[in-house]
UniProtKB/TrEMBL annotation, chains A, B:
The record marks K104 as: Transition state stabilizer. The lineage of its organism: Bacteria, Bacillati, Bacillota, Bacilli, Bacillales. It comes from Brochothrix thermosphacta (Microbacterium thermosphactum). Its main location: cytoplasm. It is found in: Cytoplasm. The gene is recU. This is Holliday junction resolvase RecU. Binds 1 Mg(2+) ion per subunit.
Length: 202, 202
Protein backbone atom coordinates (compact mmCIF):
# COMPACT_ATOMS: atom_id res chain seq x y z
CA UNK A 1 0.00 0.00 0.00
CA UNK A 2 1.33 3.40 -0.96
CA UNK A 3 -0.37 6.63 0.05
CA UNK A 4 0.11 9.43 -2.48
CA UNK A 5 -0.23 12.89 -1.06
CA UNK A 6 -1.24 15.95 -3.01
CA UNK A 7 2.18 17.46 -2.40
CA UNK A 8 3.74 14.65 -4.43
CA UNK A 9 5.11 12.80 -1.43
CA UNK A 10 4.52 9.17 -0.75
CA UNK A 11 4.19 7.14 2.39
CA UNK A 12 4.41 3.38 2.18
CA UNK A 13 3.84 1.65 5.51
CA UNK A 14 5.80 -1.57 5.91
CA UNK A 15 3.57 -4.42 4.83
CA UNK A 16 3.86 -6.44 8.00
CA UNK A 17 0.23 -6.93 8.90
CA UNK A 18 -0.90 -8.73 12.06
CA UNK A 19 -2.20 -11.54 9.81
CA UNK A 20 1.23 -12.10 8.35
CA UNK A 21 2.85 -11.91 11.74
CA UNK A 22 0.72 -14.61 13.31
CA UNK A 23 1.74 -16.99 10.55
CA UNK A 24 5.36 -16.72 11.60
CA UNK A 25 6.45 -19.56 13.84
CA UNK A 26 8.36 -19.43 17.08
CA UNK A 27 7.54 -15.79 17.60
CA UNK A 28 7.19 -14.77 21.21
CA UNK A 29 4.66 -12.16 22.23
CA UNK A 30 7.33 -9.57 22.85
CA UNK A 31 8.86 -9.98 19.41
CA UNK A 32 5.72 -9.54 17.37
CA UNK A 33 6.77 -6.03 16.52
CA UNK A 34 9.54 -5.09 14.12
CA UNK A 35 12.94 -4.07 15.36
CA UNK A 36 13.35 -0.61 16.86
CA UNK A 37 15.25 0.42 13.73
CA UNK A 38 12.38 -0.72 11.48
CA UNK A 39 9.91 1.12 13.69
CA UNK A 40 11.97 4.31 13.59
CA UNK A 41 12.50 4.19 9.84
CA UNK A 42 8.76 3.70 9.37
CA UNK A 43 7.99 6.55 11.77
CA UNK A 44 10.46 8.83 10.00
CA UNK A 45 8.82 8.10 6.64
CA UNK A 46 5.47 8.95 8.23
CA UNK A 47 6.84 12.24 9.61
CA UNK A 48 8.32 13.10 6.20
CA UNK A 49 5.11 12.34 4.30
CA UNK A 50 3.08 14.46 6.73
CA UNK A 51 5.52 17.39 6.87
CA UNK A 52 5.99 16.79 10.59
CA UNK A 53 9.76 16.37 10.68
CA UNK A 54 12.70 15.50 8.41
CA UNK A 55 14.78 12.80 10.10
CA UNK A 56 16.94 10.20 8.37
CA UNK A 57 19.13 7.35 9.50
CA UNK A 58 22.71 7.91 8.44
CA UNK A 59 24.39 5.37 6.18
CA UNK A 60 26.60 2.80 7.91
CA UNK A 61 30.20 4.03 7.77
CA UNK A 62 32.36 1.70 5.70
CA UNK A 63 36.08 1.79 4.99
CA UNK A 64 36.64 0.89 1.35
CA UNK A 65 39.93 -0.82 0.51
CA UNK A 66 39.55 -2.22 -3.02
CA UNK A 67 37.32 -1.18 -5.90
CA UNK A 68 37.11 -2.84 -9.32
CA UNK A 69 35.48 -1.56 -12.48
CA UNK A 70 34.14 -4.63 -14.31
CA UNK A 71 31.93 -2.42 -16.44
CA UNK A 72 31.90 1.26 -17.24
CA UNK A 73 28.63 1.82 -15.54
CA UNK A 74 29.23 0.54 -12.04
CA UNK A 75 32.06 0.31 -9.54
CA UNK A 76 32.33 -2.95 -7.61
CA UNK A 77 33.70 -2.82 -4.08
CA UNK A 78 35.61 -6.07 -3.42
CA UNK A 79 37.20 -5.32 -0.07
CA UNK A 80 35.73 -3.15 2.63
CA UNK A 81 35.23 -3.13 6.39
CA UNK A 82 32.68 -1.73 8.79
CA UNK A 83 34.14 1.23 10.62
CA UNK A 84 33.01 2.75 13.89
CA UNK A 85 30.50 5.58 13.63
CA UNK A 86 31.81 8.89 14.91
CA UNK A 87 28.33 10.26 15.59
CA UNK A 88 24.86 8.89 16.23
CA UNK A 89 22.60 7.02 13.82
CA UNK A 90 19.79 9.55 13.41
CA UNK A 91 19.54 13.28 12.98
CA UNK A 92 17.24 15.81 11.42
CA UNK A 93 15.01 18.82 11.88
CA UNK A 94 11.74 19.47 13.69
CA UNK A 95 10.32 23.01 13.65
CA UNK A 96 13.73 24.39 12.72
CA UNK A 97 15.39 22.71 15.71
CA UNK A 98 18.22 20.24 15.28
CA UNK A 99 17.50 16.80 16.76
CA UNK A 100 20.02 14.00 17.13
CA UNK A 101 19.70 10.58 18.68
CA UNK A 102 20.94 7.05 19.02
CA UNK A 103 18.50 4.11 19.31
CA UNK A 104 19.28 0.95 21.24
CA UNK A 105 17.46 -2.21 22.21
CA UNK A 106 18.20 -4.44 25.17
CA UNK A 107 16.87 -7.89 26.05
CA UNK A 108 17.40 -7.19 29.74
CA UNK A 109 14.19 -6.66 31.69
CA UNK A 110 15.78 -4.82 34.57
CA UNK A 111 18.48 -2.45 33.29
CA UNK A 112 20.06 -0.82 30.23
CA UNK A 113 23.76 -1.69 29.89
CA UNK A 114 25.82 1.43 29.13
CA UNK A 115 28.17 -0.56 26.89
CA UNK A 116 25.47 -0.12 24.23
CA UNK A 117 26.58 3.49 23.87
CA UNK A 118 30.08 4.31 22.63
CA UNK A 119 32.05 7.05 24.32
CA UNK A 120 32.39 9.07 21.10
CA UNK A 121 28.62 8.93 20.66
CA UNK A 122 28.14 10.33 24.16
CA UNK A 123 30.68 13.07 23.35
CA UNK A 124 28.91 13.87 20.12
CA UNK A 125 25.54 14.20 21.89
CA UNK A 126 27.13 16.47 24.50
CA UNK A 127 28.54 18.64 21.69
CA UNK A 128 25.07 18.84 20.13
CA UNK A 129 23.62 19.80 23.51
CA UNK A 130 26.27 22.54 23.96
CA UNK A 131 25.25 23.87 20.54
CA UNK A 132 21.61 24.05 21.80
CA UNK A 133 20.53 21.08 19.73
CA UNK A 134 18.24 18.38 21.10
CA UNK A 135 20.09 15.13 21.81
CA UNK A 136 18.78 11.95 23.39
CA UNK A 137 18.75 8.17 23.25
CA UNK A 138 15.75 5.99 22.51
CA UNK A 139 15.95 2.84 24.60
CA UNK A 140 13.73 -0.19 24.04
CA UNK A 141 13.35 -3.06 26.46
CA UNK A 142 12.33 -5.67 23.88
CA UNK A 143 11.06 -8.22 26.40
CA UNK A 144 8.87 -5.61 28.08
CA UNK A 145 7.73 -3.96 24.81
CA UNK A 146 8.48 -0.61 26.40
CA UNK A 147 10.39 2.27 24.84
CA UNK A 148 11.79 5.41 26.48
CA UNK A 149 13.38 8.68 25.49
CA UNK A 150 16.28 9.65 27.75
CA UNK A 151 17.84 13.11 27.38
CA UNK A 152 21.61 13.42 26.95
CA UNK A 153 21.88 15.24 30.30
CA UNK A 154 20.44 12.21 32.10
CA UNK A 155 22.54 9.80 30.07
CA UNK A 156 25.60 11.87 30.95
CA UNK A 157 24.72 11.66 34.63
CA UNK A 158 24.58 7.85 34.51
CA UNK A 159 27.79 7.75 32.45
CA UNK A 160 29.61 9.83 35.07
CA UNK A 161 28.26 7.55 37.78
CA UNK A 162 29.76 4.58 35.92
CA UNK A 163 33.13 6.33 35.87
CA UNK A 164 32.84 7.14 39.57
CA UNK A 165 31.53 3.92 41.12
CA UNK A 166 31.72 1.38 38.28
CA UNK A 167 27.97 0.85 37.97
CA UNK A 168 27.69 -0.14 34.30
CA UNK A 169 23.98 0.08 33.67
CA UNK A 170 20.90 2.22 34.21
CA UNK A 171 18.18 0.47 36.18
CA UNK A 172 14.78 0.27 34.49
CA UNK A 173 13.33 2.07 37.51
CA UNK A 174 15.75 4.94 36.95
CA UNK A 175 14.78 5.17 33.29
CA UNK A 176 11.11 5.16 34.29
CA UNK A 177 11.82 8.01 36.70
CA UNK A 178 14.16 10.16 34.59
CA UNK A 179 13.19 9.21 31.03
CA UNK A 180 9.95 9.62 29.09
CA UNK A 181 7.83 6.73 27.83
CA UNK A 182 7.09 6.62 24.09
CA UNK A 183 3.68 5.16 23.35
CA UNK A 184 3.74 2.62 20.53
CA UNK A 185 1.07 2.93 17.87
CA UNK A 186 0.43 2.23 14.21
CA UNK A 187 1.08 5.49 12.36
CA UNK A 188 3.62 6.41 13.45
CA UNK A 189 4.74 3.32 15.32
CA UNK A 190 7.16 5.14 17.61
CA UNK A 191 5.86 8.67 18.02
CA UNK A 192 8.98 10.19 19.55
CA UNK A 193 8.21 13.62 18.04
CA UNK A 194 5.14 13.84 20.27
CA UNK A 195 7.38 13.20 23.29
CA UNK A 196 9.92 15.80 22.08
CA UNK A 197 7.15 18.39 21.83
CA UNK A 198 6.28 17.90 25.49
CA UNK A 199 9.72 17.38 26.94
CA UNK A 200 11.44 20.26 25.12
CA UNK A 201 8.38 22.51 24.88
CA UNK A 202 8.38 22.82 21.08
CA UNK B 1 50.31 19.68 14.55
CA UNK B 2 47.49 19.03 17.01
CA UNK B 3 45.99 21.74 19.16
CA UNK B 4 44.70 20.46 22.50
CA UNK B 5 41.99 22.56 24.04
CA UNK B 6 41.25 22.74 27.73
CA UNK B 7 37.85 21.20 27.14
CA UNK B 8 39.57 18.00 26.01
CA UNK B 9 38.87 18.58 22.33
CA UNK B 10 41.48 18.48 19.63
CA UNK B 11 41.91 20.28 16.38
CA UNK B 12 44.43 18.97 13.88
CA UNK B 13 44.73 21.15 10.78
CA UNK B 14 45.57 19.22 7.63
CA UNK B 15 49.32 19.33 7.21
CA UNK B 16 49.32 20.70 3.69
CA UNK B 17 51.54 23.72 4.11
CA UNK B 18 52.30 26.16 1.28
CA UNK B 19 55.88 24.81 1.34
CA UNK B 20 54.69 21.30 0.61
CA UNK B 21 52.29 22.49 -2.02
CA UNK B 22 54.89 24.35 -4.05
CA UNK B 23 56.92 21.14 -4.29
CA UNK B 24 54.09 19.45 -6.14
CA UNK B 25 54.53 19.53 -9.89
CA UNK B 26 52.05 20.43 -12.56
CA UNK B 27 49.86 22.28 -10.08
CA UNK B 28 48.07 25.27 -11.52
CA UNK B 29 47.48 28.36 -9.44
CA UNK B 30 43.80 27.61 -9.05
CA UNK B 31 44.42 24.10 -7.78
CA UNK B 32 46.85 24.94 -5.01
CA UNK B 33 44.12 24.54 -2.47
CA UNK B 34 42.63 21.24 -1.36
CA UNK B 35 39.34 20.00 -2.70
CA UNK B 36 36.17 21.65 -1.48
CA UNK B 37 35.41 18.49 0.52
CA UNK B 38 38.82 18.64 2.24
CA UNK B 39 38.29 22.32 2.99
CA UNK B 40 34.85 21.68 4.44
CA UNK B 41 35.99 18.75 6.57
CA UNK B 42 38.83 20.87 7.91
CA UNK B 43 36.47 23.78 8.60
CA UNK B 44 34.01 21.47 10.36
CA UNK B 45 36.78 20.14 12.61
CA UNK B 46 37.70 23.74 13.40
CA UNK B 47 34.08 24.59 14.25
CA UNK B 48 33.82 21.50 16.46
CA UNK B 49 37.05 22.23 18.34
CA UNK B 50 35.97 25.84 18.97
CA UNK B 51 32.37 25.01 19.97
CA UNK B 52 31.10 27.05 17.01
CA UNK B 53 29.02 24.39 15.29
CA UNK B 54 28.63 20.61 15.06
CA UNK B 55 28.55 19.62 11.39
CA UNK B 56 29.62 16.28 9.94
CA UNK B 57 29.80 14.78 6.48
CA UNK B 58 27.57 11.75 6.21
CA UNK B 59 29.10 8.39 5.32
CA UNK B 60 28.85 7.36 1.67
CA UNK B 61 25.81 5.13 1.26
CA UNK B 62 26.82 1.63 0.19
CA UNK B 63 24.70 -1.38 -0.66
CA UNK B 64 26.31 -4.46 0.84
CA UNK B 65 25.74 -7.75 -1.00
CA UNK B 66 28.25 -10.24 0.44
CA UNK B 67 30.00 -10.37 3.79
CA UNK B 68 32.54 -12.99 4.92
CA UNK B 69 33.82 -13.69 8.40
CA UNK B 70 37.44 -14.81 7.99
CA UNK B 71 38.07 -14.18 11.68
CA UNK B 72 35.83 -13.73 14.68
CA UNK B 73 36.86 -10.18 15.18
CA UNK B 74 36.12 -8.56 11.85
CA UNK B 75 33.60 -8.84 9.06
CA UNK B 76 34.95 -8.57 5.53
CA UNK B 77 32.71 -7.09 2.86
CA UNK B 78 33.52 -8.81 -0.46
CA UNK B 79 30.76 -7.44 -2.68
CA UNK B 80 29.18 -4.02 -2.38
CA UNK B 81 28.09 -1.14 -4.57
CA UNK B 82 27.84 2.61 -4.21
CA UNK B 83 24.21 3.62 -3.89
CA UNK B 84 22.65 6.99 -4.53
CA UNK B 85 22.37 9.28 -1.54
CA UNK B 86 18.79 10.13 -0.59
CA UNK B 87 19.80 13.32 1.18
CA UNK B 88 22.67 15.80 1.13
CA UNK B 89 26.26 15.23 2.23
CA UNK B 90 26.44 17.55 5.24
CA UNK B 91 24.19 18.41 8.14
CA UNK B 92 24.47 19.61 11.68
CA UNK B 93 23.62 22.24 14.25
CA UNK B 94 24.54 25.88 14.75
CA UNK B 95 23.00 27.76 17.68
CA UNK B 96 20.28 25.13 17.95
CA UNK B 97 19.30 25.57 14.29
CA UNK B 98 19.37 22.70 11.86
CA UNK B 99 21.64 23.30 8.86
CA UNK B 100 21.86 21.07 5.79
CA UNK B 101 23.83 21.44 2.61
CA UNK B 102 25.36 19.90 -0.46
CA UNK B 103 28.79 21.00 -1.74
CA UNK B 104 29.77 20.93 -5.39
CA UNK B 105 32.73 22.02 -7.48
CA UNK B 106 32.70 22.92 -11.14
CA UNK B 107 35.57 23.52 -13.55
CA UNK B 108 33.39 25.86 -15.61
CA UNK B 109 34.32 29.52 -15.32
CA UNK B 110 30.99 30.85 -16.50
CA UNK B 111 28.16 28.75 -15.07
CA UNK B 112 27.19 26.03 -12.60
CA UNK B 113 25.58 23.01 -14.34
CA UNK B 114 22.43 21.91 -12.51
CA UNK B 115 23.16 18.25 -13.30
CA UNK B 116 25.53 18.42 -10.31
CA UNK B 117 22.49 18.37 -8.04
CA UNK B 118 20.19 15.33 -7.98
CA UNK B 119 16.46 15.85 -7.92
CA UNK B 120 16.05 13.95 -4.62
CA UNK B 121 18.66 16.22 -3.05
CA UNK B 122 16.70 19.28 -4.16
CA UNK B 123 13.53 17.71 -2.73
CA UNK B 124 15.30 16.95 0.53
CA UNK B 125 16.50 20.55 0.86
CA UNK B 126 13.00 21.81 0.15
CA UNK B 127 11.65 19.53 2.88
CA UNK B 128 14.26 20.91 5.29
CA UNK B 129 13.26 24.45 4.33
CA UNK B 130 9.56 23.65 4.92
CA UNK B 131 10.55 22.39 8.37
CA UNK B 132 12.23 25.78 9.04
CA UNK B 133 15.72 24.34 8.74
CA UNK B 134 18.50 26.14 6.89
CA UNK B 135 19.30 24.50 3.55
CA UNK B 136 21.73 25.63 0.87
CA UNK B 137 24.40 24.55 -1.58
CA UNK B 138 28.04 25.54 -1.48
CA UNK B 139 29.32 26.00 -5.03
CA UNK B 140 32.99 26.35 -5.90
CA UNK B 141 34.31 27.51 -9.24
CA UNK B 142 37.69 25.77 -9.00
CA UNK B 143 39.31 27.67 -11.85
CA UNK B 144 38.27 30.99 -10.34
CA UNK B 145 39.05 30.00 -6.73
CA UNK B 146 35.70 31.44 -5.75
CA UNK B 147 33.10 29.83 -3.52
CA UNK B 148 29.46 30.80 -2.95
CA UNK B 149 26.59 29.89 -0.70
CA UNK B 150 23.27 29.69 -2.55
CA UNK B 151 20.05 29.28 -0.54
CA UNK B 152 17.64 26.49 -1.44
CA UNK B 153 14.97 29.05 -2.44
CA UNK B 154 17.31 30.46 -5.12
CA UNK B 155 18.38 27.00 -6.23
CA UNK B 156 14.72 26.04 -6.51
CA UNK B 157 14.06 29.09 -8.67
CA UNK B 158 16.82 28.08 -11.13
CA UNK B 159 15.63 24.47 -11.05
CA UNK B 160 12.10 25.54 -11.99
CA UNK B 161 13.52 27.69 -14.76
CA UNK B 162 15.30 24.63 -16.13
CA UNK B 163 12.02 22.73 -16.16
CA UNK B 164 10.27 25.64 -17.86
CA UNK B 165 12.73 26.74 -20.53
CA UNK B 166 15.39 24.04 -20.53
CA UNK B 167 18.23 26.27 -19.31
CA UNK B 168 20.45 23.71 -17.55
CA UNK B 169 22.84 25.89 -15.63
CA UNK B 170 23.10 28.92 -13.38
CA UNK B 171 25.28 31.68 -14.83
CA UNK B 172 28.16 32.83 -12.64
CA UNK B 173 26.72 36.33 -12.80
CA UNK B 174 23.44 35.05 -11.38
CA UNK B 175 25.24 33.29 -8.56
CA UNK B 176 27.17 36.49 -7.84
CA UNK B 177 23.87 38.38 -7.71
CA UNK B 178 21.71 35.91 -5.76
CA UNK B 179 24.30 33.93 -3.79
CA UNK B 180 26.76 34.95 -1.08
CA UNK B 181 30.53 34.77 -1.45
CA UNK B 182 32.43 32.74 1.12
CA UNK B 183 35.86 34.21 1.87
CA UNK B 184 38.59 31.57 1.92
CA UNK B 185 41.05 31.70 4.79
CA UNK B 186 43.27 29.46 6.88
CA UNK B 187 41.30 28.66 10.03
CA UNK B 188 38.69 27.87 9.04
CA UNK B 189 39.42 27.58 5.35
CA UNK B 190 35.81 27.92 4.23
CA UNK B 191 34.04 30.02 6.83
CA UNK B 192 30.49 29.31 5.74
CA UNK B 193 29.17 29.72 9.29
CA UNK B 194 30.12 33.39 9.16
CA UNK B 195 28.04 33.73 5.99
CA UNK B 196 25.12 31.85 7.57
CA UNK B 197 25.16 34.27 10.51
CA UNK B 198 24.70 37.22 8.16
CA UNK B 199 22.35 35.68 5.62
CA UNK B 200 19.97 34.03 8.09
CA UNK B 201 20.41 36.57 10.91
CA UNK B 202 21.60 34.08 13.51
Amino acid sequence: MTINYSNGKKYTPLTTTPKKLTSLKKMSHSKRGMSLEDDLNDSNRYYLAHNIAVVHKKPTPIKIVKVKYPSRSQALITEAYFSQASTTDYNGVFKGKYIDFEAKETTSSTAFPLKNIHEHQLKHMLQVHEQSGIAFVIIRFTNLSSTYLLDIKQLHYYWQRMLNDGRKSIALKEIEATGHPIILGYHPRVDYIQVIKNVYHL
